[in-house]
């Protein structure tokens, strides 16, 4: 039930994010989050199961909506230098919340835990009331004065924000003709599909490390390994490991980059999965007693290493990228879509893991996740660009056909008005060249309408140069140079 509710919540949050703003959306999510936990806690007194289901439904919906909302808010408020570190704080906060729930839940009844958890939505509500809206959203809604004040507040009173503010304005300016309602066909452009495909792929490989299967069945794995550790304390140990590793990765993500953390995390995770699978394979061959006697330490060590490696990269980097990769115009749609896909994968893994243990044994299930993780390494290595230290505007350019890999506009190509039979003209860095003619060319004049007249041995050739527009719509303007009408 929780993954499905979260899936729906993530899908429904797109409209509020776009039309009401990131800050107001986060504030609006706090009351239902509080009420959901309150209803679950009061179920003990009311004795109505419906209250429990409604409370679980509400918290699930809000949980799904909070993930993309918080990541988008943080990424749009952060400076490029520390954006990764700040974005990773959501994963650290999540790990801390899970650990707190594990510790409290080990000593009190579930309904008391639910009532205690009502504190956290109130803390979020109080904090967000005093936070500004993101400058990017304010500028996109023509509220420049508020955007400048918000940016100045975020960067500090003594910081010069003129260059950054101008860059955000320029990025918004290129979309000034795109303020109509987003059409479905716009989402099929390469500049949208490329980052979306990368984000969905990384979300898939994150979940198919088997993380939620391992988390949900940690106690079972401990028992299968013959461990005598109480299940409650086992989850607390894992929670501490996750928190420490996730917090540490936040300091590395802006130092070493997203790619390094993902590749390193996936490599160690795959080794841990291989080791866990090997133990359960030997258990099937030797019998539980002999395998536990000789290799009982292996699954416990592998489990700890698994959580350290996962928390050090795969835990937070996919969500950092979710707030970075998407164009600002489509971010409020693609972010929730990516988060929803992640939750869908979570549901599939959790529901299928018990079946996998029966159909392919425990070792087969772990080796399956290992193979998925190895494929994920190849995916990240060849397809994921590094976003460390780049502005959101520069990241957007990485996926646009208008720009080179270094973010510079591509050199335009030109064609003469008497172009035929494959003859082309181009403007190079050293001047103007025409092929296949070897005649020397001289620029004769430059017309007000941006056409250029060139004189050769064959006469005058007129070229119309259409500048490459810094636009999202690649189909309408592909940056090419077309022949100008003959004026002679």
UniProtKB/TrEMBL annotation:
This is Major facilitator superfamily (MFS) profile domain-containing protein. Residues 470-479 have a biased composition (Acidic residues). The chain crosses the membrane at residues 26-46, 86-104, 110-131, 196-219, 231-253, 260-284, 296-321, 333-353, 365-384. One of its GO terms (biological process) is transmembrane transport. Pfam families: Sugar_tr (PF00083). Its main location: membrane. Belongs to the major facilitator superfamily. Sugar transporter (TC 2.A.1.1) family. Trehalose transporter subfamily.
């Amino acid at each position: 039930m929780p993954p499905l509710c979260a899936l729906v919540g993530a899908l429904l949050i797109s409209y509020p994010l776009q039309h009401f703003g990131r800050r107001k959306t986060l504030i609006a999510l706090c009351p239902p989050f509080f009420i959901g936990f309150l209803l679950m806690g009061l179920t003990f007194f009311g004795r109505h199961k419906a209250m429990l289901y409604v409370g679980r439904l509400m918290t699930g919906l809000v949980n799904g909506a909070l993930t993309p909302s918080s990541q988008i808010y943080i990424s749009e408020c952060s400076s490029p230098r520390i954006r990764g570190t700040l974005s990773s704080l959501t994963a650290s906060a999540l790990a801390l919340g899970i650990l707190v729930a594990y510790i409290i839940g080990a000593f009190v009844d579930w309904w008391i835990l639910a009532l205690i958890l009502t504190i956290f939505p109130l803390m979020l509500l109080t904090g967000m009331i005093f936070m500004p809206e993101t400058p990017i959203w304010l500028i996109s809604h023509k509220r420049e004065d508020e955007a400048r004040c918000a940016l100045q507040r975020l960067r500090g009173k003594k910081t010069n924000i003129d260059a950054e503010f101008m860059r955000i304005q320029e990025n918004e300016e290129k979309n000034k003709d795109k303020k109509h309602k987003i059409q479905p066909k716009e989402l099929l452009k390469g500049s949208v599909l490329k980052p979306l495909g990368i984000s969905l792929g990384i979300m898939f490989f994150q979940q198919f490390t088997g993380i939620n299967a391992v988390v949900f069945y940690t106690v079972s794995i401990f028992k299968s390994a013959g461990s005598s550790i109480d299940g409650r304390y086992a989850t607390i140990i894992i929670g501490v490991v996750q928190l420490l590793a996730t917090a540490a990765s936040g300091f590395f993500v802006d130092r070493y980059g997203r790619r390094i953390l993902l590749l390193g995390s996936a490599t160690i995770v795959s080794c841990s999965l291989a080791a866990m699978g090997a133990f359960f394979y030997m258990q099937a061959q030797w019998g539980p007693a002999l395998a536990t006697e000789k290799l009982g330490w292996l699954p416990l060590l592998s489990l700890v290493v698994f959580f350290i490696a996962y928390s050090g990269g795969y835990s937070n980097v996919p969500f950092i990228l979710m707030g970075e990769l998407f164009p600002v115009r489509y971010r409020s749609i693609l972010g929730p879509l990516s988060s929803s896909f992640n939750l869908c994968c979570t549901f599939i893994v959790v529901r299928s893991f018990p079946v996998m243990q029966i159909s392919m044994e425990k070792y087969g299930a772990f080796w399956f996740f290992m193979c998925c993780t190895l494929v994920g390494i190849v995916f990240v290595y060849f397809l994921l660009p590094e976003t460390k230290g780049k502005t959101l505007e520069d990241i957007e350019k990485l996926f646009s056909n208008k720009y080179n890999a270094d973010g510079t506009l591509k050199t335009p190509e030109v064609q003469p008005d008497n172009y035929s039979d494959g003859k082309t003209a181009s403007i190079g860095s050293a001047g103007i060249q025409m092929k296949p003619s070897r005649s020397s060319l001289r620029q004769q004049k430059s017309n007000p309408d941006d056409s250029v007249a060139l004189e050769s041995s064959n006469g005058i050739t007129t070229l119309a140069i259409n500048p490459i527009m810094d636009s999202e719509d690649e189909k309408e303007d592909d940056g090419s140079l077309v022949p100008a009408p003959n004026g002679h």
